[in-house]
UniProtKB/TrEMBL annotation:
Main location: mitochondrion
A biological process from GO: RNA processing
The protein, known as: Large ribosomal subunit protein mL44
Compartments in which it is found: Mitochondrion
Keywords associated with the record: Mitochondrion, Ribonucleoprotein, Ribosomal protein, RNA-binding, Transit peptide
Pfam family, one: RM44_endonuclase
Gene3D superfamilies the record matches: 3.30.160.20, Ribonuclease III domain (1.10.1520.10)
RNA-binding recorded as keyword: yes
UniProt record similarity statement: Belongs to the ribonuclease III family. Mitochondrion-specific ribosomal protein mL44 subfamily.
InterPro entries found in the cross-reference section: Ribosomal_mL44_DSRM_metazoa, RM44_endonuclase, RNase_III_dom, RNase_III_sf
Recorded GO MF terms: double-stranded RNA binding; ribonuclease III activity
Amino acid sequence: MATALAKHALTCVRRCRQFPRVFVQRKAVSVVRVDVRHHARWFAPFLFALRRQVQAIQHKYGPEEKKPRSHQENWDYDSELYAFGKRVGEDFTDATLRTALTDKSYVEREEARRKEMGLEGEAAKLDIQDNQELAQTGGVFISDYIKAYLRHVYRQLPEEGIGAICEHLTRQELLVYIGRHLGVTDIILCADFPIPHEVASTALQAIVGAIVQDTGAQKAGLFVRDFILSHLVDKDINELWPITNPMGLLVEILEREGRALPEARLLRQVGTSTIMPLYMVGVYSDKKLLGWGPGETLAIAEEEAARVALKHVFGTTENSPPLPLDPVKCKHLNTTVAEEVQRTRLGNQAAVSS
C-alpha cells in the first residue's frame, strides 16, 4: 500500500515539472497607498463638552444679541460696496451707490448725535443725501418696465391683468427677498436693526434708480428682467389675476373685437342621478369652440369653461411659450422696452415742467 502511494506521488511531481514556467511566474502588483486622516480620541469628547457649555451659557443668559454686519470682524464698507457692484454686474459711481444705500433714518440719527455734541445750525447737518429721490425714480422705472415688457409678451392680456402681475412682482415681500439674497441688507446705512422691510425694499428701488442715473435705462432694464421678472418662471400667470366674472369679461372682449357673443353648450354629463354628478360645458363663438371645462353643476362648469376660453384668448395657456428671458435671444426685446420706458419718462418730465 505504501509503495503504491509513493509511486503516485512521484508521478504527480513529474507531471508538475512538465508545465511551462509561464504559469508559475510571479507578476508585480501595483499597490496604492491611501492615507486616512483620523482625529485624536480626545477631540470628539472635547467638542461635546464645549457644545454643552455653550448651550448652558445660552440657557442662562439667553441667545446672543444679533449684531449688524458692520459691527462684526473683517468689515470694510468700501470693499463691500465694490463687491456688491461686481456681484450684480453693474458699474456704479461710488457717490451714487452710497446715496442709494443711505436711509433717511441714518441721516437723522447722525445729525441728532452732532447736536448732542454741541454742534448747531449748518455745522450739525451732514453733507450726504438719503435715497428717497433715487427710490422714487427706481420704483417708477420698475413698474413701467414690467408693464411694458408684459405688453410686448402678452399682447392680448388686458391692462387689468398686466397691473395685477406688476403688483405681484413689486410687492414689498418680494423686493425684500431679492435684496436680502443680493446682500443689500448688509450694507444699508440705517438707524434700526434688524433692517425694516420698508427700508430694504426702498433700498432696492434706489439701486435701480442709481443704475438708471449712472448707466441708463437699458442696464436698469436688464437688472429688472434678471432679478425681478425672473420670478414669473414656473408661475401660472392666470392665478396672479383673480377674475371674479369670467363670462362677463369674455363677453366684453368678444364685443370689442366684433365677434359673436359666447354661447355655452352642454357637451356631456355623468352621474346626474347621484350625489357626485359631473357636467362638461363648452363655450362657442362663431361656431368655434373657445374652451371647455368640468364642474359639479352647470354654473360651475360654465364658469370654468369661460376661464379656459379666456386663457386661449389671452395666450396664457399651460402650453404657451415660456417668458422670454434669454439674455442673447431677447436682447432686442430689452432694448425696445427700455427705449419705450425712457421715452415715456422723458414725456412725463416735459409735461410736468411745462
